[in-house]
Specification:
- Two copies of one chain form a homodimer.
- The first copy, chain A, is an alpha/beta fold and 419 residues long.
- Chain A has two domains: 307 residues, Bira Bifunctional Protein, Domain 2 (BirA Bifunctional Protein, domain 2); 86 residues, Rossmann fold (3-Layer(aba) Sandwich), CATH 3.40.50.800.
- Chain A is built from 13 helices and 19 strands.
- In chain A, strands 3, 7, 8, 9, 10, 11, 12, 13 and 14 form a nine-stranded mixed β-sheet that branches. In chain A, strands 16-15-17-18-19 form a five-stranded mixed β-sheet, with helices on both faces.
- In chain A, strand 15, helix 12 and strand 16 form a beta-alpha-beta unit.
- The radius of gyration of chain A is 28 Å and the shape is elongated.
Chain lengths: 419, 419
């Protein structure tokens, strides 16, 4: 019996098979995400992985159903596994925003699901770091959010040589569109063509744009010039003041496919262009109003960063640590008459925070020592009986080979904890 | 639009409504679970929240389907949201156990789902701490696992006055049964009656037991005597050696309803008997063989501890901390000409690990200070321009009211980090 296609098993390292993922690397990335969010004053939230189907179709239209894990439950409800976090977040904020001072800065690390047609290596679930700000219309919020995105990637060891934030603006494109077309109903169609410019043949884009009355050449010139709008300039200056100017550039090629973005949009890419986007986000000032049925109106912005592309990027740059069991000590029980006392010592060490393991059943001393080395324990500890019949504990640092002998009660303070 | 019945929204504290759950308390509990597991040398794993339906029916029979979130996916697969972690774990271990030294000690914190008929306050999802050991048949493994269970609860502030582990044995009951009946096919039916003894009317149990040829009175005497078997004695002695004897008692009333347990079984209860079981587990030496279709045979044991009962217990005992944003500093920007320099200071502090927030847009000094107090920042920091035009930073400890003035470059080392 195997797992479903497009889903992952996460194992402890070293990994037993190329087909499985590292639970240790996953937790390492989650810890970095969480720590970065907290340094920026973001608070954690979460919602249900299952939601009413309507929550997602309200936001994205009926066409999203084709990509969803949706079904009818035993209570005849139309429900879906969440494909993104933003609708849930907008629902939660709309329900209780009055109880929180603005701006609301929240983050989550949800698992998300999409039922896309199965392709080689294409996953149907991933984890995504979501950070959002509600209740602040000023671009200072956009800059703060982008700074968090940059610092999150930096905290994983990535530099300005590794990634770049491509900054763009729906407003800039809206202005571009309005100056050249009087048919606002075509705006979204226009954005979709811009969104595909990089991936489609120039001839295809050219024909589509011409049909809407736009010049392909003029548009490529507009993108190439990359003249920042006033709001983009404010963001660039804000980030430059923080010393983060090298991590961001204006790139109107980025427009973000989704319908609901309203202002600044951005995507993070690896500098070598080897991977899909590392992260993406922007303003969605109308969504809370839409989800709440008009009851609540709050400006909003956010980004999402998936674990899959990030993991591949970190791996390719050699930035993932080698993960071990991380034990402070392995207790050797070479004399079975000392097992009960050894259990007490192990318990006392664990009680003060040390990670300690031992052989559950009697085993030859060399086998126990080999196990201690295999799991990369920092120390071995061993109880011994002195000539006068008293107990002492011998600690050996497996790196320095240094040995020390203590009375058991004195032992704990001499071990330096791992964290 | 509201969330589905039986699902939870997790918000940052202070909570906006009695109907929602604390994301902070959840993370606090997860951190304690993870830390306890690591102190005991357990490694983290995870699997997919969706699995083939067959994985669960193989283990628990077709009757489990009535309690599952199961459906047919767009690829015509019969699938289910996981109601428990053990089948996934057994599948994962069976697939790659050769690559791991025994005993395998693993843990996970999965979200689990059950489609039970909706009752007031009854949830359809919860998170569960799962810890399991594979490849060790000796009861030393049972003792190690129970010690982890005890220490996990102790790390949350619970004492022997708060909870007790009721220790029992399928082997003891198997022996009891075999000595009195020659029809082994009735054994599971017999266990089910024992499992319900506490909840059913004595007359009902008496009749059911008589139908199988057993004496209710003899059974209640057997339970009351609570004579430990040799294997239970070994566990009690092992735990006593660790100083954990007060946390455990033999109680044959506990038998665990599930069919697959094979040896020692146990449940953790609050001492006042106010709540359902806090945790439960035992040996399941045949499950890996069953799930792997006979390919792999490994003794196994484990426990599960849900977040819901635990949360209620901790809350009722006053053992949940009050959670705040946990900021090290709030930066006051009283002079807007200093905003760019303030952003740099904030960035530098965050870069060395401090959690810092500030007003994204210009605000009156008293409003900024109020915000710093509201979010319980440990310090305020403020840039000032000296008479000679140079910058200095003023730090105020909001508890002690102590103030210090530094050059910005010297500032970071003077703030003590939260963690």
């Amino acid at each position: 019996m195997d797992r479903l296609p497009g889903f992952r098993d996460f194992y402890p390292e070293p990994l037993p098979h190329p087909d499985v993922w590292s639970a240790d690397a996953r937790q390492y990335i989650f810890d970095k995400w969480r720590a970065a969010a907290r340094r920026y004053g973001f608070r954690e939230y979460d919602g249900p992985p299952l939601e009413p189907l309507e929550l997602f179709t309200t936001k994205s239209g009926e066409e999203i159903v084709g990509q969803l894990y949706n079904f009818t439950d035993k209570g005849q409800r139309e429900i879906a596994l969440r494909p993104e976090m933003t609708p849930t977040l907008a629902r939660m904020v709309a329900a209780h925003e009055r109880n929180y001072k603005k701006p609301i800065k929240w983050f989550a690390i949800p698992q998300l699901f999409r039922y896309e047609r199965q392709q080689k290596g294409r996953l149907r679930e991933h984890f995504q770091f979501n950070a959002d700000i509600f209740g602040e219309a000023d671009v200072a919020a956009d800059a703060e959010l982008i700074a968090l995105l940059i610092d999150t990637l930096r905290s994983l060891g990535l530099t300005a040589q590794d990634f770049i934030i491509r900054l763009s603006s729906r407003n800039a494109w809206q202005e571009y569109f309005s100056q050249r077309s009087s048919d606002e109903t075509k705006a979204y169609e226009f954005y979709q063509i811009i969104d595909k410019l990089e991936r489609e043949q120039p001839e295809t884009s050219k024909a589509k744009l011409a049909a809407l009355g736009f010049s392909y050449d003029e548009i490529t010139s507009f993108i190439k010039a990359g003249q920042p709008t006033a709001e983009l300039n404010a963001i660039l200056q804000n980030l430059a003041a923080r010393g983060l100017g090298d991590f961001v550039k204006v790139d109107y090629q980025v427009i973000r496919g989704l319908a609901y973005y309203t202002g600044v949009v951005f995507e993070a890419f690896d500098q070598k262009g080897e991977f899909r986007a590392i992260a993406g986000g922007g303003r969605y000032d109308n969504l809370v109003k839409l989800i709440s049925g008009g009851k609540v109106n709050l400006p909003a912005l956010g980004f999402g960063m998936g674990d899959v592309v990030l993991f591949e990027l970190l791996k390719s740059r050699g930035l993932l640590p080698k993960f071990e069991a991380g034990l402070d000590a392995f207790c050797l029980i070479e004399d079975e008459t000392l097992r009960a006392d050894s259990l007490k010592l192990i318990q006392d060490l664990r009680a003060v925070g040390y990670a300690v393991d031992y052989s559950l059943t009697p085993a030859k001393p060399d086998k126990q020592f080999k196990r201690a080395q295999e799991i990369k324990a920092a120390h071995t500890i061993k109880l011994e009986r002195t000539a006068t019949g008293e107990l002492s504990a011998r600690m050996k640092n497996l790196n320095t080979r240094e040995e020390k002998v203590f009375a058991p009660a004195d032992f704990a303070p001499h071990l330096s904890p791992k964290s």
